[in-house]
Amino acid sequence: MKICFFCIGSGETSQAVAVCKVARAKGHNCVLIATNESGSIYAKSSGIETVEYLKWPIRVGKKDVGYNPNEVKEIIEQSASDVLVICNSKATSWGFITKRPNTKKIYSIDSNWLFSQYKDVQVADWIDTYFVTFPERVFQSGLVGNGGPYTISKKILEKIRPVGFVPSVKKISESEKEEVRTRYGLKHGEKLVFMYCGWDEEYTQKLIVQYAKAIKGINRKRCYEKMKIVYAGKIDFKLDDAYCDNNYLKNPSNFQLVLSASDLVVAHQGMITLSQSIGATVPIISNVPGKGKYYSGEYHASYYETKILSSLNLCVALERFQSDEVIGNTVKKILFKKEERAKIVNAQNGMNALAEENIINHIENNL
Q: DSSP states of 261-309 as a string?
């Protein structure tokens, strides 16, 4: 069997690579179509055959230009694949794929509840199954009937299959944790705070600087159990109390190792970092944009999806750019109050299903 993955972003590429590795281990051939450079680099470094389509829709007047769905369809069909996996289904709404390509089966991998609830997140009815990267209990919690904010039509619900968080994460050993602590010079009792807010997001610098300032203030008042920040992301200047390790952390394996060895992760609302932290049972503060007035799925997701995970104690959702006092108190509560930390870790335990295997098994059984 040959599987073609079409990816519309870096996070989606990370998910595709994770599933692709399982498929290849089971003897299947895979090809990945990347639409951004960082995703392409990651896929190639993982040894996956990669086709680059580095064009993104650009709005000029009232028209989307810069890409051609006919070109995308042709690339997919030239791969001669039995199965197409679209990462994620918004690729059909955003115009990358407007007609069903000539493959036997078509699936999507989605990290949201947005299916056709806004004009910019319409999904194609020719997708056979939507794999949703949440455990069943988490997915159900997001639906209106269970107290969540999302209403999904019965027609679409019948085609949704929750599979668990992707990528799934294996817990690291104590010796691996010690290797990370040694790398960053942590003393006995010191806490490692790992920060990642996107490689080049406009709010990255502001968030990292704000947390560094808050943690520096806490460290001044503590004689023991101090904290050290290690971060990945674009910063134009050096921070006295935080260590930037971009070159090392751009390797996905190193990124996951440091994240898993941390005592606390601080991130933007990215679902991939959230999934990795939950799988590694590391408490995470997810900094989300304010609630606002939502007119599209793209903006709606960042707030509500993270709030659902927070309501299940899988993470702590904090609206961006709180005061130093709020940030400091949140960090201290998670790191130093045993009952608060245990509440998160206990909720995270058992959430790390073998989601990639679930996806491939379903594809194999339905070809």
A: H-SEEEE-S-HHHHHHHHHTT--EEEEE-------SHHHHHHHHHHHHH
* DSSP characters over 28-44: -EEEEEESSHHHHHHHH
Helices 338-348 and 324-336 pack at an angle, to 10 degrees, of 70
pTM: 0.88
For residue range 51-98, what is the model confidence (pLDDT) as tens digits?
A: 998 876 655 555 555 678 899 999 999 999 999 999 988 888 788 898
Tell me which residue has tokens 């904290």: 227
In contact, 115 and 123? CB cutoff 8 Å: yes
Q: How confident is the model at residue 169 (pLDDT cuts 50, 70, 90)?
A: confident
User: How many residues are present in the chain?
Assistant: 367
CA–CA separation, 319 vs 30, rounded Å? 39
Nearest to 11 by CA among 56, 43, 45: 43
Instruction: Report how far residue 65's alpha carbon sits from residue 59's, in angstroms, rounded to the nearest whole number.
Output: 6
DSSP letter at 145?
Answer: G
Q: Cα separation of 178 and 326, whole Å? A: 31
- Region 326-339 average pLDDT: 93
Determine how β-strand 242-244 pairs with β-strand 264-267: unpaired
Lowest mean pLDDT among 79-93, 161-175, 214-228: 214-228
Query: Cα dihedral angle (197, 10, 112, 304), rounded to 10 degrees?
Result: 20
Cβ atoms 199, 233 nearer than 8 A: yes
